[in-house]
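Spend some time on this chain, tokens included, and walk me through the fold:

. . .
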Amino acid sequence: MELAYAGCALSCVHHRCNGVTRHVFRGQAHVADGEKTREQLADETLELRNRLATVKVREAERNRVEETLIRTQLRLRYLLCSSPAVI
């Protein structure tokens, strides 16, 4: 199951025991945010910010490539339409 959810990484499995939901990822249980130390929360926030920055960089690159592809397709269509003899 893929989720992006409070304190939970992707491919997370949720287990409910004694009224408490635990998030399990790669065999390790996450603790509820209230049980984490300030340092753990700061580390998690930093990791999420880094991941977000990476996603933004990849998205910008993908957009640049997509724009280049669209311009190339338009140029090729123009050449094909304006060519007097199409093989």
